Amino acid sequence: MIVSRLPFINAAIHQLARQSVRKEVNVTRQMSGVHFRSGALKPKPGEMPFGLFAIICAVIPGLFVGATISKNVANFLEENDLFVPSDDDDDED
């Protein structure tokens, strides 16, 4: 039954292919950040002179703040007996 329908499917596929070839498809890329409407390329954006320094100034304080918060939360959990490390984990031989 499926085999008998294949010629019709093939004919439909070929007809669609012929119709798509006849149509002219105008595909234009819209990259407004790279060039002007006239087609001229935009100038290269300026670079930040202290790029690495700015990254370091953002990461280092973030690490210290995160470590301080985690230390305070760990102390709070231990004081309130919500999480107390067991002594069994130590390897005392």
UniProtKB/TrEMBL annotation:
Principal subcellular localization:
mitochondrion
Where does it sit, as one GO cellular component term?
uniplex complex
> What is the membrane topology here?
Single-pass membrane protein
Write out the transmembrane intervals: 50-69
Q: Where in the cell is it found?
A: Mitochondrion inner membrane
> Which key words tag this protein in UniProt?
Calcium, Calcium transport, Ion transport, Membrane, Mitochondrion, Mitochondrion inner membrane, Transit peptide, Transmembrane, Transmembrane helix, Transport
Output the superkingdom of the source species: Eukaryota
The protein's matches in InterPro entries, at most eight in alphabetical order, are given as: MCU_reg
Q: Which GO biological-process labels does this protein carry?
A: calcium import into the mitochondrion; mitochondrial calcium ion homeostasis
Functional note: Essential regulatory subunit of the mitochondrial calcium uniporter complex (uniplex), a complex that mediates calcium uptake into mitochondria.
Report the family membership: Belongs to the SMDT1/EMRE family.
PANTHER family, per database record: ESSENTIAL MCU REGULATOR, MITOCHONDRIAL
Instruction: Share what the entry says about its subunit structure, partners included.
Output: Component of the uniplex complex. Interacts (via the transmembrane region) with MCU (via the first transmembrane region); the interaction is direct.
Spell out the protein name for this chain: Essential MCU regulator, mitochondrial
